Amino acid sequence: MKEIRLATKILKTLVKDRIQYLDRLVVDTIGVIARCGILLILYWYVFKLSNGVINGTTFLFAAWSIFFYFSFSVLRLRDISREIMKDIQTGNVEVLFSKPISYLSYRMWWQVGSGIYSFVVITLLAVVALFFIIGLPPTMTIGIFIPTLILTFFCGAILSLFLYTIVGLLSFWIEDINPVFWIVDKAVMILGGSYLPVALFPAFMFKIALWSPFGASQFVTHTVYETWQTNWYQLVGIQLFWIVLLGLVVYFMFESAKKKVSVNGG
Amino acid sequence: MNSNSITVSNLTKKFSFSARNSSSGWLKNLFSPETKEIVAVNDISFSVKHGERIAFIGPNGAGKSTTIKMLTGILFPTSGKVNILGFDPTKDRKKLAYQIGTVFGQRSQLLPNLPITDSLEFFGVMYDMPEKEIKKRIAELVELFDLSSFITQPVRKLSLGQRMRAEVAASLIHKPKIILLDEPTIGLDVVAKKSLRDLLLKINKEENTTIFLTSHDVGDIESLCDRTIVINHGVVIRDLPTQDLAKTFVYEKYIDLVALSNFNNFPELPEGIRYSSKDKNKITVVVDINKINVQESLKKLLDLFEVEDIDVYNADLETVIRHIYERDSTSN
């Protein structure tokens, strides 16, 4: 109960904080339009050159898949790695360790709270814009779409938090986690389908995307394809498997990390 | 009932780190690096009673902050025991956190972009206080710490003095029994320092809060603490009432000699007297009264120098503390 109350307070406080800074929302929106918009224009052109179909997929599916990746990325869950590293490098970890909270759960809720306002606003605006510009694929209008999208979205969010928390916790052992962060982040981007929609992956890479935690954290990009209707439970199952496994890794890493805390001046 | 808030027994903290050996190859340094060890806190023991005001002082690197972090459960001791209000900080960190407040002078716990009340409400929820109680406590703290004039400003726009008052208020939201402060007056001007010290005295008096603070500021120690523990090289070297600290070097007297015209030469002084500072307008000497009394030393000094004025006084607390540190360093 206390955890839920604190989580709600974190979310409310951070939304209040973000609402005061509209410039940040504008920057986030421009960032998404720039990155996602350019990719969509390029893919629209590539699909046009191929008579509208590549590997059995049309631009409509690819566009929504790419959009889901970018929408998810607005939550900035990946930044938890750097926040943990910053806490350790600046010594802020001592302030949080002296409170009656679980450090990691606090950091995770904080990360969700930091991005949720931009995520809701940008996603709503972009969904409306995409709907009017390119329309909806039929797979997004069937009954199971919304519930399974929400389910895989939540699983993906938890998995992303765990994945990037592991990278962040490495700061207790190595001074600079940036090289590791870079590798993990690029793996998530590529296998998640930000550069190339997963439907256009070669078979072996599709398997890697399917079975690795990097790709599994972005299964939200799979939801628009027809295959989702028949294998969503398998994909959510893969996500749950990784959540349990990475959750255990996070737990044991943190238990060990607590004993390694060292802050300037002690 | 145990009257101690804090009991520390044989507490030791060692930090080990791998060090590059320049005579070894990179492969050996990578896979089998040399490990060095620093003893930050070495077998210290002390206890603190409920409502006491303790200054925990020492030079940089003495082990003060390491000790505070072990008391709060942030750092795990290498050996020894800590008991705070019946809790072992390593095992009951969260339970203990409900009973203690912490202020780290160089770090902020407040939400920078929002007004202080948001931070206070936030911490109230963190400490699982009911909404009504949070509101009541915020009103109390606003009055006690005189926060009303800047309560609506975002924290990042506050002066350092205002921010520190807000930091201490935030650490008291849950009415802790002990407040641990790590250099709370660092960077504050004299007015802000006095204001903060007065507030700490007030909460000690009104709420019987035990105060445990580390500081380099002699003013904090003199005006705030009734007991001083001096630590150096990780070892407790003095633990005594603050008023007795000044008497530690009572065998030393300081004499200022102001020149009638100018002091042109500085002759060798009789045994038991040494120069503390010397320039052409003023000389300060230190007299060891175990070797020579004040009257005798004045006579000898007046034979050596032509003076306009003389001042005889005891060492101030800052000098006493410096002496303690220096003496301990020499003995090591």
Describe the structure.
The complex is a heterodimer of chains A (266) and B (332). In chain A, helix 2 (22-49) runs antiparallel to helix 3. Chain A has 266 residues and is mainly alpha-helical. The two termini of chain A are 34 Å apart. Chain A has helices spanning 2-19, 22-49, 59-73, 80-90, 93-97, 103-133, 145-169, 178-192, 203-211, 213-216, 228-258, and strands spanning 53-54, 57-58. Chain B is α/β, with parallel strands linked by helices. Chain B has two domains: 4-246, 3-Layer(aba) Sandwich (Rossmann fold); 250-331, 2-Layer Sandwich (Alpha-Beta Plaits). Chain B has helices spanning 26-31, 64-71, 93-97, 116-126, 131-144, 160-171, 190-207, 218-224, 242-245, 294-304, 317-331, and strands at residues 4-19, 34-49, 53-57, 79-84, 100-104, 178-182, 210-214, 227-232, 235-241, 252-259, 273-278, 282-288, 307-314. Chain B is globular. The mean pLDDT of chain B is 86. Classes of the chains: A mainly alpha (266), B alpha/beta (332). The A-B interface holds A 2, 5-6, 9-10, 13, 16-17, 20-21, 90-95, 97-102, 258-259, 261-263, 265-266 and B 13, 15, 40, 63-69, 72-76, 93-95, 97-98, 100, 102, 104, 106-109, 111, 113-114, 118, 121-123, 125-128, 182.
